[in-house]
UniProtKB/TrEMBL annotation:
Domain Fatty acid desaturase: 36-247
Membrane topology note: Multi-pass membrane protein
Protein name, entry field: Fatty-acid desaturase
Protein keywords: Fatty acid biosynthesis, Fatty acid metabolism, Iron, Lipid biosynthesis, Lipid metabolism, Membrane, Oxidoreductase, Transmembrane, Transmembrane helix
GO cellular component annotations of the record: membrane
Keyword Lipid metabolism: yes
Protein family according to the UniProt entry: Belongs to the fatty acid desaturase type 2 family.
Principal location listed in the UniProt entry: membrane
GO BP annotations listed: fatty acid biosynthetic process
Subcellular localization, as worded in the UniProt entry: Membrane
């Protein structure tokens, strides 16, 4: 499918309207009556909890790639944190991500970077996603889990509950920063992994896709910017493979390993990345 062929796909107006509303809400967060440094602090904390512990560590390295194992209660905690990032149902996210790795930058890849930066960043979500029909065969290991079924079904109501809690604690500034601004920032950080790290940066490995290592994406996504490394060795718990490729999520996994909470950690051999 070419970029022009995307016009043959049905527009997903629910997604389009939701994205517009959240971005407007994020802009409104800067209004004088809604801005406070405490609210910004809440947003940053929730960015780490939902985007770092939730999406990067939980949904991506733990669930999508099974790069390591943790006790089930901790796995559920990370999965719950990822749900609060409001990036769709957990089965939907994991299934599409595994599909992406199988078909990275091929025509059937839902955010194929060859279709352009804007398409791989966000435009693909504005249309129906044909790859959704393949989700069941990519999520057999978690599809029957009742907790994941719950998260997959109620991810939006859970965000509403979070908003109510934030309002009770700090009023509307906490809501606009802790929900709208934080979600939009986490969204674009995640989307940059689909777009920027398939366009900007360098490559340690020759892969069949356009994946690159991009240091500034790595900073904003807790280590996900070392994307070429990841596509070369997708099951490795460590994405930053050179000493200077800082990978905050890998450091977190090391702490969990030290505490005896992370086991069966998958890694590639030292010195694999070329200088």
């Amino acid at each position: 499918m070419t970029v022009a062929a995307s016009t043959k796909l049905r527009l997903d107006w629910t997604m389009i309207i939701a994205l517009v509303i959240f971005h407007i809400g994020a802009i409104c967060a800067f209004l004088p009556g809604l801005f406070s440094w405490k609210a910004v602090g809440v947003a940053l904390l929730l960015h780490w909890i939902t985007g770092g512990l939730g999406i990067t560590l939980g949904w991506h390295r733990l669930l999508s790639h099974r790069s390591f194992q943790v006790p089930k209660w901790l796995e559920y905690f990370f999965a719950f944190c990822g749900t609060l990032a409001l990036q769709g149902g957990i089965l939907w996210w994991v299934g599409l991500h595994r599909h992406h790795h199988l078909h990275s930058d091929q025509d059937v890849d839902h955010h194929d970077s060859k279709k352009g930066f804007l398409w791989s960043h966000v435009r693909w979500m504005c249309f129906e996603v044909p790859a959704e029909s393949d989700i069941p065969r990519f999520t057999k290991d978690i599809a029957d889990d009742r907790f994941y079924q719950f998260l997959n079904k109620y991810f939006f109501p859970l965000q509403v509950v979070l908003g109510v809690v934030l309002y009770a604690i700090g009023g509307w500034p906490f809501v606009f920063w802790g929900v709208f601004a934080r979600l939009v920032i986490v969204y674009h950080c995640t989307w940059l992994v689909n777009s920027a790290t398939h366009k900007f940066g360098y490559r340690n490995f020759e892969t069949t896709d356009n994946s690159t290592n991009c240091w500034w994406v790595a900073i904003t996504t807790y280590g996900e910017g070392w994307h070429n490394n990841h596509h070369a060795y997708q099951y490795s718990a460590r994405h930053g493979m050179k000493w200077w490729e800082i990978d905050i999520t890998w450091m977190t996994i090391q702490v969990l390993q030290f505490l005896g909470l992370a086991t069966k950690v998958k890694l590639v051999e030292a010195g694999t990345a070329k200088d």
